[in-house]
Structures are given as structure tokens and as C-alpha cells.
Amino acid sequence: MSAIELHSLTKRFGELTAVDDLSLEVKEGELLCLLGPSGCGKSTTMRMIGGLERPTEGKVSINGEEVTRTPAYERDSSIVFQNWALFPHKTVLENVEFGLKMDGVSDAERTERAREMLEMVQLSDYEDSSPNELSGGQQQRVALARSLIVEPHVLMLDEPLSNLDKRLKEEMQLELKEIHDDLDQTMVYVTHDQNEAFTLADRIGVMNDGQIVQVGEPPEVYNNPKTQFVEEFLGDTNIVSGQVEETTENSVLANSELGCSFEIPVKRDSVPEIGEPITVSLRPENMTVKPSQSREITADGGKPRSRVAGEITNVIYRGSMVRSYVDTGSREVFVEQQYDPDAGVWGQDNAIIEWNSDRLVAFDDDGMQITPYEAQL
Question: Are 239 and 256 in contact (CB under 8 A)?
Fold first, then answer.
């Protein structure tokens, strides 16, 4: 049985539709990330699950029970907010105990359980401290412990790490993942951070304009984006426009604005017509830059394929990785690869960009992916 079921969920604020006919199932014990840009409806969706917003249309079920009109305090769920919402006048222990106190649990039992929870989040030495005396990461763990102690069937987290610096955020992501795995707790995690979603999620639900546009495990969503929006949102890439020149039953040859042609594997039921526009995603990690003494690069039949010549205009070093910006004459593209001081390209002006055609991801004029998943593995 699914832990959460959303059926045709819609939420309107006046003329604004924040969530539009959204249906989704969250599996028992999984951590599902709702990922999308600001204003896409992900936090509103979470608030409807938790009972903080009432849907305009549709149904919400938790653990098989419809709770669409059930008040938040009567739902078997808990929420960790972005600002953590700790009580500044209470100690850390009292903050963690709060939910049990509201449930009428005895003093001795709630103190014992709160201390066990503080030990789990590695804050046993801070039970008498004020939240204001803690670091951001410690406050986040107190908020997490306070939500977990009431043993909710569903725990929701609304961008809880957004106020932390990069290093601390990465540490907390790993800690949160360990807590989820240890407790087998059903969690819905809202974020706009792609790296955070890929680190934490069992599955990712990508949202845009109030709708779920794709749900899947992180490798599937990244390697098999259903739409051009998903492809562009999940990471930096070079989006190149072109036009179909030749077709077969499972591939196309398309010219492009780079001045080269692309041979692209295509799903048999998605082969575009000759002359139709096509968009190709050249991911920077799937390309290489090599030194060149000439910008004249051709292949079979005089048509350049799987490579293009250009001029290196900028190089950014990122530790073990390097990003090269290359002007192909018609537009600039960027490539990322392992830094090799002996490669001989970094001090060059002219270069060749090469890629594997089987690693390309292509989209039709409607922004729908037409590349077979197996071609990208």
C-alpha cells in the first residue's frame, strides 16, 4: 500500500493555479523529493499533504485513509520547515519533547524518548542549551528530532537545509539519508537543489507549472529525461538547435547551428520527418576537447559528424575538473573533463570537440524526448 496518494490535486489562489491536476503515489518507506524551480507548486503540494492548505479539487490519502478535509493536527504526518520554527524560550530537550507533551505523554516517558532521539541526531550534550546557542546544523537536527519523536507515518521537509552553507549542507544531507535508512521513514522532501535531490532521493518528482512532469529514480530521471525542461533543469548542458536531413527507422541525421551534423539514435515510434526542427543536448561531461592546428574538420562524405572545431575562449579550473568554453564560429559551447596537465590543450587556441553520438539526448519540436533510453547507458 502506498503511504501517500494524491488524486487530481488542484489548488487555486484566486486566478493563480499553483497546483494543476496533480496525481502522485509515494511508496511506503521511500524518500521522495519534489524538485523544481521556485513557484512551481512543490511547497503547496507538500502543504496540502500536511493539511496546511485545503485543495480546491482532488483528494489526499495517507496510509490508505482519505484526509483531504482532515485538520493538520489529526493527520499522521509531521513537517520540518525551512526556518525550523524552534521555540527560543525552551531548551533543546523541551523542544524535542513538545509533540509528546501535546499528546499527553507522561513526563518520564517523554524525557526518556527525547533523550534517545537527541542521541540519534548526536545532540545528547546539548539538551539543556537554548536553540539560539546552537549552530544552524544543530538547530536543523533539533527540528528533525522534534518531528520524528511523534513517530509520524509521513515526514515532510520543506527545504530544511537551504539556510546552511555548502559544506554543512552536504554533511546534513548524508546524516539525513542515514536517518531515513535507519528508520525506514516515509519522507517527502521539497527542494529546488538538483544535487540535494540526487543525494537524498529514492525517487524524484520533477515539477513545473504546478504539474509533475516526470517521476523516477535519480539515474533514470537524469539519463532518460522525458522533456527538454527536465533535461535543462537537472544540470548544465549545451542545447543545440538543428533540422532533420535524413532518417532511418531508428536514427536521424540532422544539421545544426554548430555547423556540424548529428547522427542521433531515435525511438522507432518517434522518428521526425525530414525538414522538421530538432533540439540536441550536448552534456559537457560527454564531450572532450583536443588540440588542433586547423579548424577544417570533415568526415565521411565531407559532412562533419561527432566533432566540431573551434577556438578556446576561456578555461575555468575547478580542482580536478576543468571547464573549457569553445567558440565554434556560430556559437559558444562548454565542455567539462578531468584535468590532465599533459593533455596539451589548455594553452592552445584552436581545438576539436568530440562526442559519442550514442550519448546524445534529442527532443522534437514539442520538447519531448525522442532518444531511446538504452542508447544513453
Answer: no
Burial of 226 (0-12, 13-18, 19+ CB in 10 A): middle
- pLDDT tens digits, 355-374: 888 888 999 999 999 998 76
> How many CB atoms lie under 10 A from the CB of residue 165?
10
CA 118/CA 180 separation, integer angstroms? 15
Count of other CB atoms within 10 angstroms of residue 102: 10
Residues 8 and 82 in one domain: yes
- Output the CA torsion 286→291→297→300 (10° steps): -60
User: Which helix (H) or strand (E) is 20 found in, with range?
Assistant: strand 16-26
Least confidently predicted of 28-42, 160-174, 251-265, 284-298: 284-298
Q: What angle do CA 108, 113, 118 make, to 5 degrees?
A: 125
**Residue 72 Cα distances to 75, 79, 92, 161, 338, angstroms:** 5, 10, 24, 23, 50
The neighbour count for residue 194, using CB atoms within 10 Å, is: 19
Q: pLDDT digits over 45-74, tens only?
A: 999 999 999 999 999 999 999 999 999 989
Confidence of residue 347 (pLDDT cuts 50, 70, 90): low
- Residue 275 exposed, middle or buried by CB count within 10 Å (0-12, 13-18, 19+): exposed
Same structural domain, 159 and 245: no
**Distance of alpha carbon 267 from its chain centroid, rounded?**
25
One domain for residues 226 and 153: yes
- Give backbone dihedrals phi and psi of 159, rounded to 5 degrees, phi first: 45, 55
Report which DSSP code applies to 131: G
Domain range for 115 is 4-231
